[in-house]
Amino acid sequence: MRQRYLAPLGALALVAVFVSLAAVSMRSQTKAAPKAPGLPKPGPAPRTAWGEPDLQGTWFVMENVPLERSAANANKEFLTDAEVAAADKQKADDPGRNARSANSAQDVNGAYNAVFNSVLRTSKRTSMIIDPPDGKIPPLTAEAQQRQGRGGRGGLGAGGGGRGNAASVNDNPETVAQSPRCLGVQMPFLATNPLFAQGTVMQIVQGPKSMGIYMEDDHAGGGNRVIFMDGRPHAPSTIKNVLGDSRGKWEGNTLIVETTNFVQGYRGANPDTYKMTEKFTRIDSNNLRRDITFEDPKTWTRPWTVRIEMGKTDDSRHMIFDSACHEGNYGLTGILVGARREEQAAKK
Amino acid sequence: MTRNVTTAQVGGQAAPARIAGKPDFSGIWEANNTANWDLQTHAARPMVAQPGFSPGSVTLAAPVLGLGSIGWVPPGQGVVEGEEIPYLPWAAARKKENLEHWMDRDPEIKCFQPGVPRAMYMPYPFQIVQSASKIMMVFEYANAQRTIHLNKMEDYPNVAYMGYSVGHWEGDTLVVDVKDFTDATWFDRSGNFHSDALHVTERYNMAGRDVIRYEATIEDPQVFTRTWKISMPLYRRLDTNAQLMDFRCVEMVEETMYGHLRKEQLVKQWVGNTMTVNITRTIPPGEKVHERYISGNPPAK
């Protein structure tokens, strides 16, 4: 009985992952994409009923900016209008987006991938990093080079290997890549992979004593931060959170949010010495700027800062949908069942 | 910068008592009752039971045997007004079946978002962030979240595990309509459930500085013969520097949900002083391997 049922599932496993993710992706992107013509002309930055700059709203990253500046753009902070137009034309002409083959079934299966190609417009800015001025992550300290070279977890990518030798990533749920596990969004929540709509949308609710940020990424699920703004100190160092421990304070019209107590530092930083400091500034009614400075004297030779510009959506529309990634995660079951089916087939 | 927030002296600390003219619900809150175990009045009982030695008695069954007194559900007075949950006949049978298959079926065990009202009385704290036009609630359990929209919103064109919440003020009472639920969430660990036609109307009142009087009216004509109501106090967590911590259960439940699909089983045997527990993982037949929950909708005719 088991073999009979496993046979079709094995073949479907990979497709099933794409279908489930694609359905979510399409919903959030078609409903959530900001409509430029519907937005009112920018006015002055509003204030809350209690007189502070009002950061509340659902905010989207509207343009594609690489984290680091490419060699081709060395010494060049901004592209010209002509260069932006040329880059956008190249994206629109990408032959991979609308390819046809002789195998129509394959094309239909492949078309599920097309929803991932949600191309953001090219930004004039050539790197998210605004400091150091070369647009590059500063060099690692000697200690960090040694630590990361010894197999320290540098990135947030797929887990490798499993228990025992010659392990496959599909042997266990823990060894499957992060995104099919629906473990929730990670900090610092940057749009480093806008093709997958990652790090592009956040909803802020702002009170006088605390602020909530709901971050949505359909492949990972959601993530919810609460920022205390009542002057209390950070949690003791015994408390570690995946999204860190955030404290906010106003300096003029800018909300400064310091986040520490991470379980894991960004890009392999040491969680005990790593700190991120965000500066939220409402530029005008339609625009929010989020500058983030990453510091860890044990990892980088100097602090570095990224700039993220976000646009607002209509308050009565464009709600972020519940991705319910874990609740609907038929993909991970499919991946594991498919792998067990392949092992059974190989034994024959 | 002027802060147009009314403040009240509380224990030497200035705390705003109202936000934009309305009661301030912000802070860390938690119910202190057994409603998440069972909405109705219940005596202590095994989490999972088997017939006991004496006729008619029950005792702990295999999954929780080693837990001893911790394996027994704490008793509690019900939170249902009039005690009765008015199920339609098919739904009463389903509720009983849900309780019998609690460990296979309770969405909490799988770390699914709990829905409303269940999120409000789980044994974990939650935090309220309040502005003039939105109220966000962040729950320690599963890092779940709901936003109550006080401004005029377009209809929600989808369903959501936590539902879609639209609120308004009636004097100092916050009234919230919650709809657009899935058919997948439950009310408690006793198998009380609903369909996707669920409509919850919540009322929040400050009863003193550190207590919210919470009420939820439940309406679901696919499952119940009439509306019914629960009510309970929610208490402010007064612990020094109370804050939410991580309870990221998606990772915690991977062994429970997917362990049977590993290449090599991780958990096979647990050995204690007076018992050895052998664990056999099985893969259910057919499409059941992909079953994640039992729909609360009425069976198709």
How is this fold's topology laid out?
The complex is a heterodimer of chains A (348) and B (301).
Chain A: H1 2-32, E1 57-61, E2 63-64, H2 81-92, H3 104-114, E3 121-122, E4 129-131, H4 142-149, E5 201-206, E6 210-217, E7 221-228, E8 245-251, E9 254-260, E10 275-284, E11 287-295, E12 304-312, H5 330-347
Parallel strand pairs in A: 2-3, 7-8
Antiparallel strand pairs in A: 1-5, 1-12, 4-12, 5-6, 6-7, 8-9, 9-10, 10-11, 11-12
Helix pairs in contact in A: 1-5
Chain B: E1 6-10, E2 13-19, E3 22-23, E4 27-31, E5 45-46, E6 49-51, E7 58-60, E8 72-73, H1 89-100, H2 102-105, E9 126-130, E10 134-139, E11 145-149, E12 164-170, E13 173-179, E14 199-206, E15 211-219, E16 228-236, H3 249-252, H4 254-258, E17 269-271, E18 276-278
Parallel strand pairs in B: 11-12
Antiparallel strand pairs in B: 1-2, 2-3, 4-9, 4-16, 5-8, 6-7, 9-10, 10-11, 12-13, 13-14, 14-15, 15-16, 17-18
Strand order of the largest sheet of chain B: 4-9-10-11-12-13-14-15-16
User: What is the radius of gyration of chain A?
Assistant: 22 Å
What is the overall silhouette of chain A?
globular
- How many strands, what sense, and barrel or not for the largest sheet of chain A? 9 strands, mixed, barrel
Overall mean pLDDT of chain A stands at 82
State the helix count of chain B. 4
| Helical residues, percent of chain A | 10-25%
